[in-house]
Amino acid sequence: MDREATKQKYARERAKRLRPDGNDQYLRLEEQFSDMLDDPYLPVQERAPKTDHVTVAFIGGGFSGLVVGARLAEVGITDYRVIEKGGDFGGTWYWNRYPGAMCDTASMIYMPLLEETSYMPREKYARAPEILEHCARIGKQYNLYDKALFHTRVVELQWDESRSVWQVRTDRGDDFTAQFVAMGTGPLHVPKLPGIPGIDEFQGHAFHTSRWDYDYTGGDAGGALLEKLADKRVALIGTGATAVQCVPHLARACGTFYVCQRTPSSVDARSNEPIDAAWYGEATRESGWQQRWMENFTENLTGIAFEDFVHDGWTDLARRFQEKVLTLPPEQQADPVQMMRAYEDSDFEKMDQIRARVDAVVDDPETAANLKAWYKQLCKRPCFHDEYLQAFNNPSTVLLDTDGKGVERITRNGVVVAGVEYEVDCIIYGTGFLIGTEVSDRCGFETIGRNGVTLTDYWEGGMRTLHGISSHNFPNLFRVQPTQGANFIANVPHNIVESARTIALLLQHATDNGYKVVETTKDAEDAWLEVLSGASLMLGDPTCTPGYYNNEGQPLPEEAKSYVGYPAGAMAFFRYIDEWRNSGRFEGMAFS
Ligand code: NDP
Question: For residue 366, what are the contacts with CB-CB under 8 A and spacing of at least 6?
Fold first, then answer.
């Protein structure tokens, strides 16, 4: 392996993709393409607006809203209302029903509350319909459906000082109060389109992958053949984690299928397999098994595990790095320069393997060359799939590689790549979701706290929280998200189950003791930000190819520097927060 030559190749490929407009290259669907945001899965049900009061309102009906609801029910708080913009529980799994959608993190650690619901996943990596079913299972088991408001978007959240409640307003005319509000609105839920010239001129059919139009394509989310595409010419724009999963299905079905690529994904083997019931029974015999599995995965990824329960692409990546470090002489094993070199070496080796796999699978040498990813594996979401590369051997599937430039133009009739127009009947946008925009934008509403302070203003220049969960000036308000906590991105549900426990114990303490208001003190928030100031930023590697992990290759805005986790690592945070909430003192929170 020639390290220097590889680094130079990475830099050249990155340079091709850098654009001065960064995130501004994307279009919001709300503005010109709002019909592409409509829910294609369930009709909106008429209902009267709510003007009542609930103990806890939760914004977002994905895993966060479900797990918090379950944990609150366990501590006896059942007056709980979820507000969700989709037509059912599921969050990202409600919207993302494209063919082939599945989870890349092993189901035993990814699907929450398996132990509580006594559910055994069917496969090591669960498919989207099974995850959606599981969301409904949790909703039913914990009676979360009764009060849920679906197809409802919060438009404003305002603290009412005189009554010590939150006033919640929605786009369905609801105007109700809640003593406590929590939210898990997810980082990737507002679909975006590429700002390709002519995008509004296309006369054929078009949709975004997160609103899959099965009426047009035929087939279903379970993987049935998209039979209505047999005589169609279809272009898919994007080759990210979503595209990797739907390409094999489109390749099987379309008359002609063009895959428009700007940057190839790194695609390693997935090796999915059914879960064996006898093995599962044995692995899950002792109570608390799922927590132990989650912790084992996190320990593997943060370098402190002796065993690997999960055995997947993520733990493989981590263990390779650890093995490389162990080959260093003992005196170099704690030297940051040597550690970085060991990390780079293991990454180069892994990426070489992934590139060699392309040559081994793809028949046409030019297509194979264009499908190779030239960047460090964690510059973009690593992908794992056993049919993606194979799809390019299908004679009706054509890779339109744009050499890092993106689709040049969209016309009335199709897409233009390298000066050639390819006529198509349908364009599918696998172009991802907005990220890195204003707080109010990301949540879709403004939060107005004590004395009229907006969250956007309070967080100007950076996020301010205690443990990533609550902020001064915003009493009785809790967030479920990883930043400023464990920041453990490889298995987001682990962050969620921990936050849900913390919130449940806090609210139990408040309600048992008759407190109406719980608020993070300014001192505690400042002290936590001081702790976090020792953390290194995971985002924004300037040597990486542009993408949403590094602000499209542009310098990070000042506020992004606050998007860090506990400096001692994810597992250390989970241990710390467990002690904090179980002490019963909830240091840094003022109860009144
Ligand atoms: P991404 O943002 O990852 O990918 C968008 C794609 O669109 C990229 O390939 C991008 O190219 C391409 N693109 C954007 N503009 C243009 C253009 N002008 N011309 C051509 N191509 C263009 O979105 P995804 O929906 O794929 O994934 C989002 C995230 O969702 C993932 O990163 C992952 O976190 C999650 N996810 C997880 C899955 C799982 O666990 N199984 C499955 C699917 C998604 P470029 O790379 O050059 O920017």
Answer: none
Whether 263 is in the pocket of ligand 1, judged by its Cβ within 6 Å, is yes
Residue whose CA is at the smallest distance from ligand 1 atom 14: 431
d(CA 22, CA 237): 18
What is the pTM assigned to this prediction? 0.95
**Backbone dihedral region of 556: left (phi > 0), alpha (psi from -120 to 50 degrees) or beta?**
beta
What is the extent of the structural domain holding 462?
Answer: 53-190+435-591
Domain total for the chain? 1
In a domain, 242, yes or no: no
Ligand 1 pocket check for 370: Cβ under 6 Å: no
Which residue lies with its CA nearest to atom 18 of ligand 1? 406
Residue the block writes with tokens 């975004």: 208
Q: Whose CA is nearest to atom 34 of ligand 1?
A: 381
Regarding the beta carbon of 107 and ligand 1, being less than 6 Å apart is answered no
Index of the ligand 1 atom closest to the CA of residue 546: 48
Domain containing residue 582: CATH number = 3.50.50.60
Q: Over the stretch 297-324, which tens digit does the pLDDT of each residue have?
A: 999 998 778 899 999 888 988 888 888 8
CA distances from 114 to 77, 121, 280, 413, 574 (A): 21, 8, 12, 48, 20
| Residue pLDDT, tens place only, 504-560 | 999 999 999 999 999 999 999 999 999 999 888 777 788 999 988 888 888 888 888
Separation of CA 91 and ligand 1 centre (Å): 18
